[in-house]
Amino acid sequence: MNLRLIFMSFAFACLMDAATSTQVVASTIVFDLEDQAQTGFNDGALTSLTLTRQGLSMTITRPGSPNQFDIYDVTDIGNPTFPASWGVRSISPWFSNDGTAFVANFSKPVQSVSIDMGDFGGDPDDLFIEAYSELDATGTLLDSVTSQLQGGGGDWTAATLRVSVATPSIRSIRFMGGTERFETPIGVFRVPNSVYYDNFAVVVPEPASLSLLGVGIASLSVFAIRRRQRRT
Ligand SMILES: [Ca+2]
Ligand SMILES: [Ca+2]
Ligand SMILES: [Ca+2]
Fold first, then answer.
1. pLDDT tens sequence across 126-170
2. For the chain, which has fewer Cβ within 10 Å, the N-terminal or C-terminal residue?
3. What separation, in Å, do the N-terminal and C-terminal C-alpha atoms of the chain show?
């Protein structure tokens, strides 16, 4: 096969690949918090946390009052049912269990977000994530999901919640897990923000197919120029 044929085949393959695949491919960025310093179980050391990975920044806050939270090693509690996938760093809301939800802003529109939410037994926990079109949990509510963790035991319970949209347009999420009313023999507790949060998995678009299309067009252009040069 001569060089021209190889060249044409390459350009054609790139163009066909671009034409037959979707316009974008998705890439999943996971913030597992393992690179963060531990602050404590309920020190209230943080009011804002910005995590950056693969060109995406996620800033977590807890708007309202109280607005503090921590990075904690949940294995310190020493419960053997704690899963390895959580590592040794998670977000702890335990500075205050009041109902100030977390908000996470993204530096660019994303397609989906999932969060692992977990807690030891005892109280049941109602979990939710809401996805919004603008920063700070404003704009249009694009998607929302709820789940629940069973109460009544000492073992670790956890769920992965995911919000997603067809085209990448999520700029922020709001999330929380806990219970408004938890009765025990020693009294009634209100702990609406009382789970740990970890493994934030964010799906972002990557213009891979568009770049393939570009390579295909560029290859054909070079081929056309060379042919023109040969004629003159
Ligand atoms: Ca972790
Ligand atoms: Ca619980
Ligand atoms: Ca709880």
1. 999 999 999 999 999 999 999 999 988 888 999 999 999 999 999
2. C
3. 25
CA 120 to ligand 3 center in whole angstroms: 7
Taking the centre of ligand 2 as the mean of its atom positions, its distance from the CA of residue 88, in whole angstroms, is 19
Query: Structurally, how many domains does the chain consist of?
Result: 2
- The answer to whether residues 153 and 184 touch, using CB atoms and an 8 Å cutoff, is no
Ligand 1 midpoint to CA 90 (Å): 5
Q: How far is the CA of 178 from the centre of ligand 2 (A)?
A: 7
Domain around 142: 24-206
Tokens standing for residue 159? 């769920």
Q: What are the C-alpha distances in Å from 93 to residues 3, 87, 102, 120?
A: 63, 17, 9, 14
Tell me the whole-structure pTM to 2 decimals.
0.80
